[in-house]
Automatic annotation (TrEMBL):
InterPro entries: GH, Glycosyl_Hydrolase_39
Name under which the protein is recorded: Beta-xylosidase
Matching Gene3D superfamilies: Glycosidases (3.20.20.80)
Length: 307
């Protein structure tokens, strides 16, 4: 079942939101307020999550609060990769959580945390245990990124691609399983924490890994999964058939579903990081997905008095 709807992904990361088009995040704030309202109108009991910050930045939280965004979300999410992309040490994780806790009374979820095997699979295995030891019990949700390595024939969803140097290629080594589906040493370590530390696994359109991923997650004992439904993909032929297949396959997990990625023809500029031309269109996409996959259930009728 869907336990939460996440609005966008890493909005303060230029790989996922273009700051040149929206330098003060005014357009993002408008879009998020509308999306939060639309989700609540469809299902008032569904948890609304503000897209995970990366970098972790309390000033960004204050900025969005000043624009009324936090009135329309229930949870603030953060992402961190201290051994790969962040300029802080892994032992600072609890301090990073406290930095955000100091500026909001919203619950904090960590919806992406990971360590790549780019340099060493053994380092990744150590990173799984270290992360679990540092974070389990500190926040209500943790999602390890990710189950699978990104296939080398695909592109990572970043802004500058290979121009990012080794930072770009680390995207292809974040999985606990290699591209061919064989386990890395980190998978066995992760299995000890799977019930308390969920997974984040993005599935591409008509992803061939879906069924195997479900089998692995059930074998590991994963309870909580974060994934996405792409607004851009919704314009592909047979998009709803794929969305239905994906969400049906994931029905046994507590799913946080992320709504993001601007369709090229609906952006101010033709790129997935662009603010939409019409913010209401993104809000309607969110509403449509909630109606389809997380509809509000009517309250149970009280039992009639007898005797």
């Amino acid at each position: 079942m869907i336990e939460a709807a996440k609005i966008w992904n890493e909005p303060n990361n230029k790989s996922h939101w273009d700051p040149n088009l929206d330098p003060e995040w005014d357009l993002f704030a408008q879009m998020t307020r509308l999306a939060g309202q639309a989700i609540a109108a469809e299902n008032g009991g569904l948890t609304r999550v503000l897209g995970g910050m990366s970098p972790i930045d309390p000033h960004f939280v204050r900025r969005l609060e000043s624009k009324g965004v936090l009135d329309h979300v229930d949870v603030v999410a953060i992402h961190g990769f201290p051994l790969d992309w962040n300029l802080w040490m892994i032992d600072e994780w609890p301090d990073k959580v406290e930095e955000i806790r100091a500026v909001t009374d919203k619950p904090i979820w960590i919806t992406e945390v990971g360590v790549s095997s780019f340099g060493s699979e053994e380092v990744q295995a150590w990173g799984v245990k270290k992360t679990a030891d540092l974070l389990i019990g500190k926040v209500p949700r943790i999602h390890w990124y990710s189950l699978y390595d990104l296939p080398k024939t695909w592109e990572a969803t970043t802004r500058h691609k290979e121009a990012e140097g080794s930072s770009y290629y680390r995207h292809f080594h974040m999985g606990l399983l290699r591209e061919d589906g064989t386990p890395k040493p980190g998978l066995e370590v992760y299995a000890d924490y799977a019930a308390e530390m969920g997974l984040c696994q993005w599935f591409h359109f008509e992803d061939h890994r879906l069924d195997d991923a479900v089998a692995w997650m059930k074998r590991l004992g994963v309870k909580h999964l974060r994934t996405g439904l792409s607004w851009a993909d919704s314009f592909r032929p047979d998009a709803l058939a794929w969305f239905d297949r994906q969400m049906e396959a994931l029905a046994d997990f507590e799913v946080t579903v992320t709504f993001c990625f601007t369709p090229e023809h609906r952006g101010i500029e033709p790129h997935h990081t662009s603010p939409p031309q019409v913010a209401e269109e993104f809000a309607e996409f969110c509403a449509q997905m909630v109606r389809r996959y997380a509809p509000s259930r009517p309250a149970a009728r009280p039992l009639a008095a007898t005797g």
